[in-house]
Write a structure and sequence with these properties.
The chain has about 100 residues and is mainly alpha-helical. The protein has helices at about 35-45, 65-80, 95-104, and strands at about 5-10, 50, 55-60. Strand 2 (about 50) and strand 3 form a beta hairpin.
Length: about 100
């Protein structure tokens, strides 16, 4: 879902000595991350937490993702057909070049 722009992995750094400066080596290991805080921040941004992956959040529920992928693929195929490209639903180099030509 990262490819579609509706998923994100959130990670944050911790200022262990609370001096306001990120010092060399200052980070929180995966086993010490404050997941409740991370989840609270994501929820406030209306992201959906994946229970099986602690730092992964999405903008739409997993159950709706097939519909979203099908919609996006249909739009890509339509664009490709309208622009005399092979309508395969893949955003390859030729499709990207056409998009850039139109929108840049």
């Amino acid at each position: 879902m990262h490819f579609f722009g509706i998923a994100a992995d959130l990670v944050y750094l911790d200022d262990r000595d609370n001096d306001g400066i990120q010092d060399k080596g200052e980070f929180v290991s995966w086993d010490k991350l404050n997941y409740p805080l991370l989840q609270e921040l994501a929820t406030s941004a209306e992201l959906i937490h994946l229970t099986w992956e602690a730092c992964h959040f999405q903008l739409i529920p997993v159950s709706l993702q097939p519909n979203f992928r099908n919609f996006v693929t249909a739009q890509v195929v339509s664009f490709q057909q309208d622009n005399n490209l092979v309508p395969d639903g893949d955003v390859g180099p030729k499709t990207i070049a056409k998009l850039r030509n139109i929108y840049e």
